[in-house]
Amino acid sequence: MNASPTKLETLAIDGGMPVRETLLPYGRQSVSEEDIQAVVEVLRSDWLTTGPKVGEFEERFAAWVGAKYGISFSSGTAALHAAAFAAGLGPGDEGITTPMTFCATANCVLYQGAQPVFADVSADTLNLDPGEVAKQLSPRTKAILAVDYAGHPADLDALLALTRQRGIPLIEDACHALGANYRGTRVGGIADMTVFSFHPVKHLTTGEGGMVTTNDAKLAETLRRFRNHGISSEARQRQASGQWYYEMVLLGFNYRLTDVACALGLSQLTRLTENVARRREIAARYAAAFREVPQLIPPSVRADASPAWHLYPIRIDSAKLTVDRGQIFRALRAENIGVNVHYIPVHLHPYYRNLGHRAGECPVAEAAYERLISLPMFHGMTDADVGDVVRAVNKVISSYAK
Ligand SMILES: *Cc1c(COP(=O)(O)O)cnc(C)c1O
Question: Which of 53, 142, 202, 395 is catalytic?
Answer without folding.
Answer: 202
